[in-house]
């Protein structure tokens, strides 16, 4: 399994858990996402973007990193381009850092759409910012998350979902069809390790960090 880390520009909490999560991995930075490299003690091997949100200080500090410059006007975000590059390098597991927080809610939404879109192209895709874990749910896999008792989590949907099962939770579900506009799957609580599976639809499981 080839594991690659993609650094995006959203806010992170550089906890010991997050730093351990990225150590020893090949790292690709998307534009201003490279600002997380120092806090996480990683050395990106590739830096992609139009660099419109990258300061002169960052450009100088990381001028030794191979750069792939993109036009400002394009139909793909810098983050998606970084994901594409990770796949081109043979990545079979993607760890996306910096996709979840920041001043632009539309950027966060776009990143979650990207995570859901590319999850089927790799063996595993997960977003982690030190505060929350986000897993796109796949029809061919059971998601297992090693939560401690009391951890809050939700299943957030992009569509109606079919045959949803949630095990190891305070409010379990078994083979339930959930309409898109239902909030049935918001704010659950882990009793310990949690398993989630579904047979149709698009959704994300979001867990607070242990």
TrEMBL record:
UniProt cross-references to SUPFAM superfamilies, sorted A to Z: Thiamin pyrophosphokinase, catalytic domain
InterPro entries linked to this entry: Thi_PPkinase, Thiamin_PyroPKinase_B1-bd, TPK, TPK_catalytic, TPK_catalytic_sf
SMART domains, sorted: TPK_B1_binding
Gene Ontology molecular functions: ATP binding; kinase activity; thiamine binding; thiamine diphosphokinase activity
Protein name, UniProt field: Thiamine diphosphokinase
PANTHER family in UniProt: THIAMINE PYROPHOSPHOKINASE (PTHR41299:SF1)
Keywords: ATP-binding, Kinase, Nucleotide-binding, Transferase
């Amino acid at each position: 399994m080839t594991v690659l880390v993609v650094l995006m520009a959203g806010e992170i909490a550089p906890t010991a858990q997050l730093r351990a999560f990225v150590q020893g991995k090949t790292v690709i930075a998307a534009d201003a996402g490279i600002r997380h490299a120092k806090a996480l003690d990683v050395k990106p091997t590739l830096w992609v973007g139009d660099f419109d949100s990258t300061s002169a200080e960052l450009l100088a500090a990381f001028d030794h990193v191979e750069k792939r410059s993109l036009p400002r006007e394009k139909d793909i975000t810098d983050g998606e381009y970084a994901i594409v590059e990770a796949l081109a390098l043979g990545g079979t597991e993607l760890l996306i850092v910096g996709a979840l927080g920041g001043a632009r809610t539309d950027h966060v939404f776009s990143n979650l759409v990207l995570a859901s879109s590319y999850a089927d192209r790799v063996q595993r895709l997960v977003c982690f910012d030190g505060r929350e874990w986000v897993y796109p749910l796949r029809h061919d896999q059971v998601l297992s998350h090693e939560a401690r008792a009391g951890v809050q989590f939700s299943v957030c949907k992009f569509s109606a979902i079919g045959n949803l099962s949630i095990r190891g939770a305070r409010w379990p579900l078994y083979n339930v069809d959930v309409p898109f506009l239902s909030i049935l799957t918001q704010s659950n609580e882990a009793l310990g390790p949690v398993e989630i599976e579904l047979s149709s639809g698009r959704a994300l499981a979001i867990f607070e960090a242990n």
